[in-house]
């Protein structure tokens, strides 16, 4: 078989259904082979960054299904591969398994500055879990199997396979005969062997039982190990409130009585104050990102920390743990939940304290949502989000871009479905939402998907409207247009004396753009039209775009200033 | 002069698969953690396909050290990584030194140090190989004198625990 055939065979053997990408000189042979088969569906993005976010969408959304898959994208050498970099770095930060296959110039001219040559392995290495360059056709299949294994095992992450064009065209007699899914590559020392030290478990249970003011921090690991329902059962049994990191959201219903909502820089007052006052933090599959901890010197100084984390290098990295369980969240929760020594304490004073935190700015926020109009007379994203949440009963899938609207979605969408919230967290890559929502929709075709962006992020991957048009991807696009880069503007309002440097933006006629792509569109500037517009988009079969004219003065509070501690949390202005 | 020079010398021993790019990966990680590598040696082991790497750098904090090691260990190709106990290990280095000396001076050096003469020109310019602890090599170089030394090539550490 030819190298190109082996690439596709290995992907099909791994259960891949979709390939996102963009062709070019050095990857043409693989695309040519793709044309001859029908097991794989090719989706052409309009820019390689779009392709990698689409692949991320497949991986993120399929995690909680019966068929979890690693998204695959392809690009040509040089600029094609370089355009993948941002999306690959993003997948690395958010622990999302992705396989990127790039074409490379033929081995004979590598490192001669050949046309469209870039050092892909060199560039990708620090941004991936692993990077490969097979130098013989006999390595192709095993490399792709190993790449898929590495991407999805343990803590997920991106893997890049850079294949020189001549290697793609070589022929070989030897073909792998094994079952890809049971294949364990020869990587001694890499294998993740979950094992919980029983003494540590006992200590953890002891800490939980003694704790008067515990809090669970639910991270991305809970979503990745698909253990939302188990977490809910554990929290109920042990009677411990749960706060979520940005990526932990949607692990359990956000209005559950144990839920405190999101924690961190833009977390809820109740989550942040509870974290500040806790005597025990049970952190599940999270890495104490600086957006979660604020200034580490002031972070939960009186709390003991139980850190459940699959990646040992995250343990004690930012926050020193009292007890560490280096394992998959599913296994740890299972053991904790079934431990006969675990007691359920009423913790009446703690919950009363939390109830008081809940009320601290509840009225202020409700009033703002009910008014629906900001200081400059335009719509509030908070109100639109609440309405969207109500009309969809919190059951739909939300793909958020990056910025102010993202934090508002995380705070005000009432997530009810497990694994229904996707966004770029660690890297904070603007423009992720539109392409990611395409992958999400393809992975979960029977659910409604809303892709929500600001006017800044939307234009960063606006070209993917072409992909939506071509494949009639049923994504509902919500554009929160306030004519500014909202999150930076908020910082400028609060910390830069209102000097709006580099944030105002003259916007195009988005209706004309939607029209040009054949996507039905409505512009909403009146509060009375919001519900009807959302309902129209929801009921429409196929893609639909809504542009909301939003108020640039809107602020999302609370806010823990960057570099500050929770003590400096801003809960109101003026 | 950076502050790192004042910190404690530490050594990390890594066993890894002998694959292209591993050295690059570990070097990049150490750079990202903002360390300046003092010495780095890589060689094959008696296990086919496995290499060993000895890295020395300056760090006072045990916690930071553990963090670097855990991150090295995370690399797909790394089989194991740990810190070497400096007091419980043998540390050796090889230096090849080109220097000027007359016969008398050479006799004095021979009585004090163990080394092998690799080359001599006109009885005045010598190339010798000195093997031993880093300290003994430092002493040798000092004794020869900076003004007499033409060129020095040192291998960097290799080490083994007792």
Q: Work out the count of structural domains of chain A.
A: 3
Structural class of chain A: alpha/beta
Number of strands of chain A: 18
Order of strands across the widest beta sheet of chain A? 2-1-3-4-6-5
General shape of chain A: globular
What descriptive keywords fit this protein?
heterodimer; A: 574 residues; alpha/beta; Rossmann fold; six-stranded parallel beta sheet; 23 helices; 18 strands; 15% strand; B: 162 residues; alpha+beta; Alpha-Beta Plaits; 2 domains; five-stranded antiparallel beta sheet; 4 helices; 9 strands; 41% strand; elongated
Description:
The complex is a heterodimer of chains A (574) and B (162). Chain A is an alpha/beta fold. Chain A has 3 domains: 3-182, Rossmann fold (3-Layer(aba) Sandwich), CATH 3.40.50.970; 198-358, TPP-binding domain (Rossmann fold), CATH 3.40.50.1220; 361-565, Thiamin diphosphate (ThDP)-binding fold, Pyr/PP domains (Rossmann fold), CATH 3.40.50.970. Chain A is built from 23 helices and 18 strands. In chain A, the strands form 3 sheets. In chain A, strands 2-1-3-4-6-5 form a 6-stranded parallel sheet, with helices on both faces. A 6-stranded parallel sheet of chain A has the order 9-8-7-10-11-12, sandwiched between helices. In chain A, α3 (48-62) packs parallel to α4. The termini of chain A are far apart. In chain B, 28% of the residues lie in helices and 41% in strands. In chain B, a hairpin with a 3-residue loop joins β6 and β7. Chain B contains 4 helices and 9 strands. By secondary structure, chain B is of the alpha+beta class. Chain B starts with 8 loop residues before the first strand and ends with a strand. Chain B is elongated. The model of chain B has no long low-confidence stretch (mean pLDDT 90). The longest helix of chain B has 13 residues, at 62-74. Chain B folds into 2 domains: 3-84, Alpha-Beta Plaits (2-Layer Sandwich); 89-161, 2-Layer Sandwich (Alpha-Beta Plaits), CATH 3.30.70. In chain B, the strands form 2 sheets. In chain B, strands 5, 6, 7, 8 and 9 form a 5-stranded antiparallel sheet that branches. Chain B has a 4-stranded antiparallel sheet with strand order 2-3-1-4, with helices on one face. The A-B interface holds A 121-122, 125-126, 129-131, 133, 150, 187-190, 311-313, 315-317 and B 15-17, 20-21, 24-25, 28-29, 32, 63, 66-67, 70-71, 73-74, 76-80.
């Amino acid at each position: 078989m030819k190298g190109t055939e082996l690439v596709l065979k290995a992907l099909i053997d791994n259960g891949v259904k979709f390939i996102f990408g963009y062709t070019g000189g050095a990857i043409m042979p693989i695309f040519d082979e793709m044309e001859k088969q029908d097991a794989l569906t090719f989706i052409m993005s309009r820019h390689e960054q779009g392709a990698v976010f689409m692949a991320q969408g497949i991986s993120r959304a399929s995690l909680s299904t019966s068929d979890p898959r690693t998204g695959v994208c392809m690009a040509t050498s040089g600029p094609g591969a370089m355009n993948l970099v941002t999306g690959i770095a993003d997948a690395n930060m958010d622990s999302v398994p992705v396989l990127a296959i790039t074409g490379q110039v033929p081995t004979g001219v590598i490192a001669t500055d050949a046309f469209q040559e870039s050092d892909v392995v060199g560039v990708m290495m620090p941004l991936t879990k692993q990077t490969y360059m097979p130098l013989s056709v006999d390595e192709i299949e095993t490399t792709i199997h190993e790449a898929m294994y590495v991407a999805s095992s343990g803590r997920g992450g991106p893997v890049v396979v850079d294949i020189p064009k001549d290697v793609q065209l070589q022929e070989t007699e030897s073909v792998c005969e094994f079952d890809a899914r049971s294949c364990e590559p020869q990587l001694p020392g890499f294998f993740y062997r979950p094992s919980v030290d029983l003494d540590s478990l006992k200590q953890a249970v002891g800490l939980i039982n003694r704790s008067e003011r515990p809090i669970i921090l639910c991270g991305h690991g809970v979503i990745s190990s698909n253990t939302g329902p188990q977490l809910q059962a554990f929290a109920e049994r042990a009677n411990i409130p749960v706060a979520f990191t940005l990526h932990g959201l949607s692990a359990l219903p956000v209005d559950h009585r144990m839920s405190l909502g999101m924690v961190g820089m833009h977390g809820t007052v109740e989550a942040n104050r509870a974290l500040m006052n806790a005597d025990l933090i049970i952190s599940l599959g999270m890495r104490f990102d600086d957006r979660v901890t604020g200034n580490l010197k002031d972070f939960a100084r009186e709390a003991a920390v139980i850190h459940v984390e699959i990646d040992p290098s995250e343990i004690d990295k930012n926050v020193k743990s009292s007890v560490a369980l280096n394992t998959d969240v599913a296994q740890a929760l299972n053991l904790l939940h079934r431990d006969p020594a675990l007691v359920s304490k009423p913790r009446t004073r703690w919950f009363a304290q939390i109830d008081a935190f809940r009320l601290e700015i509840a009225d202020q926020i409700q009033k703002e949502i009910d008014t629906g109009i900001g200081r400059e007379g335009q719509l509030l994203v908070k109100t639109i989000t609440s309405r969207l949440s109500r009309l969809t009963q919190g059951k739909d899938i939300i793909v958020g871009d990056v910025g102010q609207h993202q934090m508002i979605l995380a705070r005000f969408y009432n997530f009810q479905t497990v694994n229904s919230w996707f966004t770029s967290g660690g890297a904070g890559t603007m423009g992720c939402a539109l392409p990611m929502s395409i992958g999400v929709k393809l992975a979960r075709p029977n659910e409604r998907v809303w892709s929500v962006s600001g006017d800044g992020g939307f234009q960063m991957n606006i070209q993917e409207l072409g992909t939506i048009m071509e494949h009639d991807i049923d994504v509902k696009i919500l554009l929160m247009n306030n004519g500014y880069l909202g999150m930076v503007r908020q910082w400028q309002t609060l910390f830069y004396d209102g000097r709006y440097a580099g944030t105002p933006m003259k916007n195009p006629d988005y209706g004309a753009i939607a029209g040009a792509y054949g996507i039905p569109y409505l512009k909403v500037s009146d509060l009375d039209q919001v519900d009807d517009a959302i309902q129209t988009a929801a009921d429409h079969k196929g893609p639909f775009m809504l542009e909301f004219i939003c108020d640039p003065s809107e602020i999302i509070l609370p806010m823990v200033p960057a570099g500050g501690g929770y003590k400096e949390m801003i809960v109101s202005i003026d | 002069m950076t502050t790192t020079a004042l910190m404690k010398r530490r050594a990390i021993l890594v066993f890894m698969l002998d694959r292209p790019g591993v050295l690059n990966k570990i070097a990049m990680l150490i750079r990202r953690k903002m360390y300046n590598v003092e010495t780095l040696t890589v060689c094959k082991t008696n296990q086919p396909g496995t290499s060993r790497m000895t890295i020395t750098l300056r760090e006072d904090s045990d916690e930071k050290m553990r963090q670097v090691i855990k991150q090295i260990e995370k690399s797909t190709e790394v089989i194991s990584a740990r810190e070497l106990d400096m007091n419980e290990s043998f540390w050796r280095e090889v230096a090849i030194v080109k220097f000027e000396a007359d016969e008398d001076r050479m006799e004095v050096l021979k009585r004090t140090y163990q080394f092998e003469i690799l080359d001599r020109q006109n009885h005045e310019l010598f190339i010798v190989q000195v093997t031993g602890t880093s300290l003994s090599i430092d002493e040798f170089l000092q004794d020869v004198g900076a003004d007499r030394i033409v060129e020095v090539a040192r291998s960097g550490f290799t080490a083994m625990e007792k």
